[in-house]
Amino acid sequence: TQPAQEQLVYAGTGTVSDEDRASLATDLQGIRDQLMNLANSTDGNGRYIFAGYKTEAAPFDQATGGYHGGEKSVTQQVDSARTMVIGHTGAQIFNSITSNAVPEPDGSDSEKNLFVMLDTAIAALKTPVEGNDVEKEKAAAAIDKTNRGLKNSLNNVLTVRAELGTQLSELSTLDSLGSDRALGQKLQMSNLVDVDWNSVISSYVMQQAALQASYKTFTDMQGMSLFQLNR
């Protein structure tokens, strides 16, 4: 989102010609397309990453930017008493702002949908304003609103990213604890009698498998484009 902000800052200087504004609109459209591709990206199994539990269909409408994915985040139990979100919905990332978002000067509701923000700015940049003060004022207001919206959107993405980083760190700790528990379980097992060994071993293996799967998920997500959104 930062490249988009940079373009809008330039566009908002008031000294840009209609021709240059049209060029900026084209650049901004390219940024929107990149973000849309990210929002509708899939994993190695063809499942949509930001669609919640509705992984079979693209969560965002290419034309309108509307979200049609699942409303619930994907969660997974990583320990006997701990469940984590391992997949945020597209609405939580691309269609949300934080509680400390920059407010609108006139008190109106802040735009939350990243794609609607960009579409508003693109339309404003495509509108000729030279020699027309009314249109120039409207375009400037639209660009300013989008700039505020992009700041809010970026702040929201950084919040989600920080949450993922914290959870990844916690998973690393749980993984270490799992190794210690394994040793403790082996010592306990040597002293037990009348134990259903199949049940004990199966339970342990399932816990470790769930933990390793969750750890891999978060490790993979570190390399995803979501972590590059603010660059």
From TrEMBL:
Gene3D superfamilies with a match to the protein in the record: f41 fragment of flagellin, N-terminal domain
Gene Ontology, cellular component aspect: bacterial-type flagellum; extracellular region
MF-aspect GO terms: structural molecule activity
Keyword annotations of the record: Bacterial flagellum, Cell projection, Cilium, Flagellum, Secreted
Localization of this protein: Bacterial flagellum; Secreted
Domain Flagellin N-terminal: 2-55
Record-linked Pfam families: Flagellin_N
Keyword Secreted belongs to the record: yes
Entry's transmembrane regions: none
InterPro entries: Flagellin (IPR001492), Flagellin_N (IPR001029)
Stated family: Belongs to the bacterial flagellin family.
Protein name from the UniProt record: Flagellar hook-filament junction protein FlgL
Organism, scientific name: Salmonella enterica subsp. enterica serovar Wilhelmsburg
Lineage start: Bacteria, Pseudomonadati, Pseudomonadota, Gammaproteobacteria, Enterobacterales
